[in-house]
Amino acid sequence: MHETILILDFGSQYTQLIARRVRETGVYSEILPCTVGVDEVAKRDPHGLILSGGPCSVYDAEAPQLAPDLLELRRDDGSLVPVLGICYGLQAMAHELGGRVERADRREFGRARIEVVDGGGDDPDLFAEVPDGSTVWMSHSDHLTDLPDGYEVIARTDNAPVAAVRNTTAPHYGVQFHPEVVHTDFGRQVLENFAYDICGCRGDWTPASFVEEQVDAIREQVGDRHVILGLSGGVDSSVAAALLHRALGDQLHCIFVNNGLLRKGGWTQVQDTFRGHFNMDLRTQDATDRFLARLDGVTDPEEKRTIVGNTFIEVFEEQTEAIADDLGHRPEFLAQGTLYPDLIESVSFKGPSATIKTHHNVGGLPEQLDFELIEPFRELFKDEVREIGRLLDVPEPIVGRHPFPGPGLAIRILGAVTRDRLALLREADAIFIEELRANDLYDEVWQAFAVLLPVQTVGVMGDERTYENVCALRAVTSVDGMTADWAHLPQDFLGHVSNRIVNEVRGINRVTYDISSKPPATIEWE
User: CB–CB of 299/338 below 8 Å?
Assistant: First the structure.
């Protein structure tokens, strides 16, 4: 059993980031819904509790509330379990204890400078080694106006006189800002102070220990039975395949489907890697014609995702039956490389999180497939999976690859998907990625790709007028994909890429660069 800090999810889009930041400190973390019973929390023997942010006001009729008994939870030695409330978590805690939360005259969204009011004397200091005046990230419309009895202010900003509080007699703390996002300069330090100085953790969780535990757990779960896995060539499914193969060897059967929406060279690269490098049982099927026929004329992005997802399941089932014929029985398990961000942006997972878009590999499998599910990475983020992939000897061109959506280029073509438009986008995207690699910029960005827009513009090439397509380039920097800034690539570099695309991809005469961050935009356009 690892030292564990439990995070109660009140619906924040950032809840998964809290878990990731805590794990960065070497302390294992798990997320539970804010509605979980106190007995269930106590059974897990947490070293500490973190209450996440959320989209509600504590006075909303349907707003989730904090169970008061959680603030009285004790460890085996009789000491109180430390609690840290973040944003809504702070407000829910204060509201439950008799404090007052009100709508702020001016909502606060973005960066602010924090002033540490009191370090806490001889008590553990939440702001130890956090410089006065450092930047924090605010995202709230309500604020705390009256403190509960026994609480005192330990930090403030110009717009938030109560930016952080502590209980003078119990290890209970709250912050109005979000220490989990990268925009808070010393957010990791705040969480580390909570985990080590306040909760007393030592730090006993690493990706290497995760691999060992998962290999043992998978072997125990599967026994002598068989597992199938849909391999896309992306980081998530590739590392999942490597982990399952280490645990099970020939009991793993991978299925790779060409949906006609892959990146340039993807069809051959995946086969070379997993048949050659890993010597896995890899079943392949080129179903390009089937996918493109069903996408013909479809322009709505959610409909595209549904079509791609449903068609993939159909082809996947055909390949599964072929494997069953070889084995003499159907495989009993289905493995997926599902990650935290897939789950939080798709379903109300472990709390009342808002749905943003549908991921075709999450929650879309029909019940009649009748598999037991293995999702070893459902509690991890992309960079953690990459580190695990390197431990498992996954080749760097795959483990370091930028994220790629399940529906592929279908959602990077705005409007109808056709073979001609796919060819244009595939070539433009390949040029962009090639130049990023050639200029040592590929690893400096989290994700980069081209988008084909549903418009044409007038251009002049030579002495002739053109009326051709517009291509948008998108590159972002991020730690985990939950928030992202647009990448400030050199202008000369962007000019060179634009020149190559216009000259080499016949059918594109204009290139733009997307300078939107997430939020308010998403990384993908659809």
Answer: no
**How does pLDDT run across 24-82, given as a tens digit for each residue?**
999 999 888 898 899 999 999 999 999 999 888 888 888 899 999 999 999 888 899 99
> 4-198 has which fold?
Rossmann fold (3.40.50)
| CATH of 207-399 among 3.40.630.10, 3.40.50.620, 3.40.190.10, 3.40.50.300 | 3.40.50.620
In sequence order, what are the residues at sequence separation of 6 or more whose Cβ sits closer than 8 angstroms to the Cβ of residue 479?
Answer: 182, 383, 446
Residue carrying structure tokens 């009991």 = 251
Instruction: Examine residue 519 and say whether the peptide bond preceding it is cis (omega within 30 degrees of 0).
Output: yes
Give the list of residues 6+ apart from residue 469 with CB closer than 8 angstroms, or none: 421, 424, 452, 453, 455, 456, 507, 508, 509, 510
Strand order in the sheet with 281-286: 281-286, 252-258, 227-230, 333-335, 372-374
Phi, psi at 410, each rounded to 5°:
-60, -35
| Closest of 293, 283, 228 to residue 257, by C-alpha | 283
Q: Given 172, 178, 245, 402, which residue is catalytic? A: 178
How many whole angstroms separate alpha carbon 53 and alpha carbon 42? 22
87 has catalytic annotation:
yes
Low-confidence ranges of the chain (pLDDT < 50): 120, 346-364
* pLDDT value at residue 483: 80
Q: How many angstroms separate the Cα of 366 from the Cα of each of 77, 115, 310, 374, 391?
A: 47, 53, 9, 16, 34
3-state class of 50 per DSSP?
strand
What are the start and end residues of each CATH 3.40.50.880 domain in the chain? 4-198
Dihedral (C-alpha) 107, 112, 117, 118: value to the nearest 10 degrees?
A: 110
Does residue 226 carry a catalytic annotation? Answer: no
Catalytic residue list contains 303: no
Torsion angle, alpha carbons of 20, 25, 31, 35, to 10: -120
What's the topology of domain 418-513?
Answer: GMP Synthetase; Chain A, domain 3 (3.30.300)
Q: Which of 56, 87, 201, 471 is catalytic?
A: 87
Q: Is 285 helix (H, G, I), strand (E, B) or coil?
A: strand
The overall average pLDDT reported for the chain is 89
Q: What is the pLDDT of residues 365-376, one digit of tens each?
A: 555 567 889 999
Annotate 38-61 with b (16+ C-beta within 10 A) or e (fewer): eeebeeeebbbbbbbbbebbbeee
pLDDT attached to residue 354: 44
Chain position carrying tokens 């808002």: 354
Place of tokens 């068989």: 226
Burial class (CB within 10 angstroms; exposed 0-12, middle 13-18, buried 19+) of 415? middle
- Read off the pTM: 0.76
Q: How many CB atoms lie within 10 A of CB 197?
A: 15
